[in-house]
Amino acid sequence: MVKFYLNKELFTEDYRKTAINHTAYEAVRNRREAGNKLLDFSETIWDRDVPEIIDTLMRMGETEFTISSNFSGLVKTLADFDRLGAKVAGMTEINANRRTYRTGELKRIPAILMRIG
């Protein structure tokens, strides 16, 4: 992992001043909050962002990530990732990036495990 991506100052800046795709930037922020080992994409991933996301992850040294989003275009997005070398590697469970109202704890949720390369 490239250390400057974990630098606290990065997270106080406007993401447009960084070299990180906005969707990947949010995944970095969410990983810190949820305490997950891997980056997780929990929101909609726009098809046009897939190449930039892969580029960002490769520059960060990330070889695995998860997708926990349930958006309706997920199959098309998975195909786009696949064409760029990020393959579905199975299912896993991760911490959600939001706490439950009742207990205040992070909920465990299913996610698709992806591997680059």
Explain what this protein looks like in three dimensions:
The chain is α+β, with helices and mostly antiparallel strands and 117 residues long. Helices cover 29% and strands 27% of the residues. The model is unreliable at 1-12 (pLDDT under 50).
Q: What can be said about the biggest beta sheet?
A: 4 strands, mixed
End-to-end separation in angstroms reads 16 Å
- Please state roughly what percent of the residues sit in beta strands, choosing from under 5%, 5-15%, 15-25%, 25-35%, 35-45% or over 45%: 25-35%
**Shape assignment:** globular
Total beta strand runs:
4
Helix-strand pattern: HEHEHEE
As a whole number of angstroms, the C-alpha radius of gyration is 14 Å
**Number of DSSP helical runs:** 3
What is the mean predicted local confidence, pLDDT? 85
- Widest sheet, order of strands: 1-2-4-3
Poorly predicted spans: 1-12
Which bin fits the share of residues in helices? 25-40%
SS class: alpha+beta
Question: What are the defining features of this structure?
Answer:
single chain, 117 residues, alpha+beta, 4-stranded mixed β-sheet, 27% strand, disordered N terminus
Topology (SSEs and partners):
Elements: H1 22-34, E1 39-41, H2 50-60, E2 64-67, H3 74-83, E3 86-99, E4 106-116
Parallel strand pairs: 1-2
Antiparallel strand pairs: 2-4, 3-4
Brief summary:
The protein has 117 residues and is an alpha+beta fold. It has three helices and four strands; from the N terminus they run H-E-H-E-H-E-E.
